Amino acid sequence: MVTFRIYGVGVHHSPPSPPFNALAARQLREGLGMAPGHVAYGLRAQYGLAVTPDTVIAWERGRLAPTAQELTALAGVLWCAPGELIAAATTLREHRIARGLAADDLARRVGLDLPGYLRMEESGRWRGNERQTAALAETLGLGARELLRATGRDDDLATLLRDAATTRWQAYVRPVVKLLPLPKRSVEAALQRLYTDYHARMAATSSWGASGDSGAAGREYLDGIVQHFWEAVGP
């Protein structure tokens, strides 16, 4: 059921539940030799949550998903990390919950005030500076690709990479480094490779004897520019 919270003027939906790994929940419960009733009792006794055995069964069969609060409590009852009950964390909020961090704790660790951090988490758009971004990646244990997706900057990177490949790549080293916690030398090498590969394709298709649309190869390369970048960066 969707609930609403009112802050001054306007109505806001409560955040969606994290993607729940129903199979993992059932396997963890069975591994502990617990019945759904034991789990429900633990949630009531330890966390004050009015959860019934039928609700636990519905979670494990994928018919219902626990809220973020219920998922964190369920992890406590099942003696596991919250991340083990999340199918595939992708958003900033999901990564935070997966690591059992409260919003105020994460905000403090990355050097943000809580309201500012929550605005970014709820909007899906990260606006922290380079130092805060590096702290975020370290705190949540995110690699460069995970960080990019969690902070909602996929399109920003694609735009920078297309411009770097088609114009003067050196001008885009700094902007890319601000988006991703990658060594400057790795970014420089990757952008130079993108520039070289793109212009080589354009030169080949515009040479004498080339047939068809001379820009097709270049457009195709730019369509996959993000994947080309990760291949150039390497592991």
Protein model, in words:
With 235 residues, this protein is mainly alpha-helical. The chain has helices at 22-31, 36-47, 53-60, 68-77, 92-98, 103-110, 114-123, 130-140, 144-150, 154-166, 173-179, 184-206, 216-223, 225-233, and strands spanning 4-6, 11-13. It contains 14 helices and two strands. Strands 1-2 form a two-stranded antiparallel ribbon. It is elongated, with a radius of gyration of 23 Å.
How is the secondary structure organized here?
Elements: E1 4-6, E2 11-13, H1 22-31, H2 36-47, H3 53-60, H4 68-77, H5 92-98, H6 103-110, H7 114-123, H8 130-140, H9 144-150, H10 154-166, H11 173-179, H12 184-206, H13 216-223, H14 225-233
Antiparallel strand pairs: 1-2
Helix pairs in contact: 2-3, 2-4, 6-7, 10-11, 10-12, 11-12, 12-13, 12-14
